[in-house]
Amino acid sequence: MPASTPLAAPLASTYRRFIVTRLLIVAGLAIALAISLLADIASGPAHIPLSNLVALVIDAQAQEPVQQAIVWEIRIPVALMAVLVGATLGLAGAEMQTVLNNPLASPFTLGVGAAATLGASLVIVFNLTLFGLNAHYATALMAFVFAAASILTINALSRLYGASREIIVLFGIALVFVLNALVALLQLIASPDALQQLVFWTMGSLSRASWETVAIVAAVLAVCLPFSLRSAWAMTALRSGDEHARSFGIPVERLRLISLLRVSLLAAAAVAFVGTIGFIGLVGPHMARLALGEEHRFYLPGSALAGALVLSLASIASKTLVDGLVLPVGLVTSLVGIPFFMALIMLQGRTR
Amino acid sequence: MSAGFTLNHFSTGYRKRRIFEQLSLPTLPPGSLVAVLGPNAVGKSTLLKAIAGLQPFSGRMQLNDIDLATLSGAARMRHVGYLPQTLPQATTLVAYEAVLSACRAVRPDLSRTEIDALIERVFDALAIRSLALRPLSELSGGQRQMVGLAQAIARQPALFLLDEPTSALDLRWQLALIDTVRAVIAERQAVCLMAIHDINLALRFCDQVLLFGNGGLLAAGDPQDVITPDVLRAAYGVEARVEHCSLGRPVVLSDRVSDLSAN
């Protein structure tokens, strides 16, 4: 039991010093992300000298049109997409881990990603035109509808059978298998052209990012993040446990439902344009938890930043690992992500 | 309007099993520490949960001049400090954050300095200042239980519902906790219902006792009047004596399980 040695300063100011450290870590993450973003823009199969690159970014008209097109139409959208999708998946994973009280939860472990993939596949395979929307929006919309449906299913089932960790994870895994089977079925009946699109999709790739899709993901993130942050205290309180949070007067069921809907929106926006990119939603929150703890005013933005940083670094790796070839970034995150993640878990295990 | 806490015609339970039917309690005056005693599965936790509004119930419930039965959610919890039997989860949150979040999440009306001052006082009162910046995952079960109590006290409720608050505590901290709770309810003229297994703690430190058995409320009132060998036999099915210690205080000694066939 604790010895009651009083600290000299009032607790509030001691705690505030503690907070400053965290602010510095968040700032450090942001700076690292900015550097990674620039490095991402600077790397690619076309060798553009750094001096040309700087001139191009400052003044788009200054250089020859080919380089200008490469930088402005390919590299910058792709680099921004990596940051945005990483942030989106990191935030979605963080919220999911908190409201499901499960450190294994992420948009992909519980089938939300698979559901979004199924929704998007339907649009691709059957060439659906929803309400006259163009392909981008139709894909995003269907991905969201399916993601939301999957998360509501998990929520409903876990409420019926008790929201224990085991049950949620079991339902999630079952859902992943069912959805993957359905996607495989679609691949079986898809035209060769659609099949190629689908395969590309399931590998996860940033290469088809455009300013338009970047804007959509940015808009979704910009809409969701303030609402996430607004419930930061409630989510922090939820970490004490459902029963404790309820005893403070927090409407736990509503908080969970709204947060899960937000997660499906975030995951769908990310998955709709880049396909399946695993591990970001799992690794981002774990990194943030290790570095920042679980006070959600820091943990939520921290997870978004960590997710963005990891995907941005993966994007650089996808262009530089094999000279002259851009690997699908989903492959890189999985291949580099797995050992990284295992190391993180083992590190955590040792400190416990 | 009456002062203190009253409960009348109160019924609660689960779909298949009613736990309480038309229960009425004597009025519990402000500043009283009330022990809720009874054998396992008699409904002590259900009673506290239902009074906290976390379990469906019917009946009348009055706290000072507030009609508690009509309030729910954050509005109700502003007056009620319920401490569940489970400990706060062992997360990476530091103790200070755990208590801070319990206040900030539901009291946007309080300023940051007011909340800071509240928490300062609670950590001092419970003598857990040294834990403030340590993650809950590094604390012992008993320490986490104290943090849980801090979360309840910091919100300054007028009615405390503590579900076995001493279950994870050693002797010294059991006494310290009861001292603190007594001081807090005396200062704020609050009422505290405390489910507890240790009859001697109840006998020694509580103002009133509510003793439940399988037939519902068996006895209520002053601990020394309520706790008798007959009532203990009826409630727990044990043969027990109430002796007096060298300081002249009553002490319960339980000898053996009653021969139920003799009843």
Automatic annotation (TrEMBL), chain A:
<dbReference type="InterPro" id="IPR000522">
    <property type="entry name" value="ABC_transptr_permease_BtuC"/>
</dbReference>
<keyword id="KW-0472">Membrane</keyword>
<feature type="transmembrane region" description="Helical">
    <location>
        <begin position="104"/>
        <end position="129"/>
    </location>
</feature>
<keyword id="KW-0813">Transport</keyword>
<keyword id="KW-0812">Transmembrane</keyword>
<feature type="transmembrane region" description="Helical">
    <location>
        <begin position="298"/>
        <end position="318"/>
    </location>
</feature>
<feature type="transmembrane region" description="Helical">
    <location>
        <begin position="23"/>
        <end position="42"/>
    </location>
</feature>
<feature type="transmembrane region" description="Helical">
    <location>
        <begin position="325"/>
        <end position="347"/>
    </location>
</feature>
<feature type="transmembrane region" description="Helical">
    <location>
        <begin position="167"/>
        <end position="189"/>
    </location>
</feature>
<dbReference type="InterPro" id="IPR037294">
    <property type="entry name" value="ABC_BtuC-like"/>
</dbReference>
<feature type="transmembrane region" description="Helical">
    <location>
        <begin position="263"/>
        <end position="286"/>
    </location>
</feature>
<feature type="transmembrane region" description="Helical">
    <location>
        <begin position="135"/>
        <end position="155"/>
    </location>
</feature>
<comment type="similarity">
    <text>Belongs to the binding-protein-dependent transport system permease family. FecCD subfamily.</text>
</comment>
<dbReference type="Pfam" id="PF01032">
    <property type="entry name" value="FecCD"/>
</dbReference>
<keyword id="KW-1133">Transmembrane helix</keyword>
<keyword id="KW-1003">Cell membrane</keyword>
<feature type="transmembrane region" description="Helical">
    <location>
        <begin position="209"/>
        <end position="229"/>
    </location>
</feature>
<feature type="transmembrane region" description="Helical">
    <location>
        <begin position="74"/>
        <end position="92"/>
    </location>
</feature>
<protein>
    <submittedName>
        <fullName>Iron ABC transporter permease</fullName>
    </submittedName>
</protein>
From TrEMBL, chain B:
<dbReference type="GO" id="GO:0005524">
    <property type="term" value="F:ATP binding"/>
</dbReference>
<dbReference type="InterPro" id="IPR017871">
    <property type="entry name" value="ABC_transporter-like_CS"/>
</dbReference>
<dbReference type="InterPro" id="IPR003593">
    <property type="entry name" value="AAA+_ATPase"/>
</dbReference>
<keyword id="KW-0547">Nucleotide-binding</keyword>
<dbReference type="InterPro" id="IPR003439">
    <property type="entry name" value="ABC_transporter-like_ATP-bd"/>
</dbReference>
<dbReference type="InterPro" id="IPR027417">
    <property type="entry name" value="P-loop_NTPase"/>
</dbReference>
<feature type="domain" description="ABC transporter">
    <location>
        <begin position="5"/>
        <end position="239"/>
    </location>
</feature>
<protein>
    <submittedName>
        <fullName>ABC transporter ATP-binding protein</fullName>
    </submittedName>
</protein>
<dbReference type="Pfam" id="PF00005">
    <property type="entry name" value="ABC_tran"/>
</dbReference>
<keyword id="KW-0067">ATP-binding</keyword>
